[in-house]
Amino acid sequence: MKNGEEGAEEKKEVVSLESLSKKMDDFAKARDWEKYHSPRNLLLAMVGEVGELSEIFQWKGEVARGLPDWEEEEKVHLGEELSDVLLYLVRLSDACGVDLGKAALRKLELNAIKYPVKQTDYCVGEHSSGNVKLKEEN
């Protein structure tokens, strides 16, 4: 620690979608990869990375939030695969002309309308066509 910073928490760098987009664009341009970064190719690459992410969880059963039983090496690997998915998603959104941040905020607003707080006793099953009631209302 420097200059009496003992006990001070480490400052976390704030990372925006814009900064990731710029870094990814610079990275691709420097390697002349832009010609390969069509929406289709980026999507397929991202799906491949989602597969790699899935492999990490395969055969583990349910895991606790925060992954308390995982080794640090496993968490680092998870972070790498999550990052691969995120970076391809950001690159894909750019290739499609979609402002991912704005689209995500809009989607949250739509979800808040679709699933108002009063309906928190309901769960929408991924394979059901409607709400499944979990408990009786009073």
TrEMBL record:
Intracellular or extracellular location(s): Cytoplasm, Cytosol
Pfam families registered for this protein in UniProt: MazG-like (PF12643)
InterPro entries for the chain: DCTPP
One cellular component term from this protein's GO annotations in UniProt: cytosol
Record GO biological process: dCTP catabolic process; DNA protection
Highest taxon of the lineage: Eukaryota
SUPFAM superfamilies documented for this protein: all-alpha NTP pyrophosphatases
Cofactor(s) demanded: Mg(2+)
Catalytic activity as recorded in UniProt: dCTP + H2O = dCMP + diphosphate + H(+)
Keyword Ubl conjugation applies: no
Keyword terms, alphabetized: Cytoplasm, Hydrolase, Magnesium, Metal-binding
GO MF entries: dCTP diphosphatase activity; magnesium ion binding
Subunit structure: Homotetramer.
Name of this chain's protein: dCTP pyrophosphatase 1
Native source species: Thlaspi arvense (Field penny-cress)
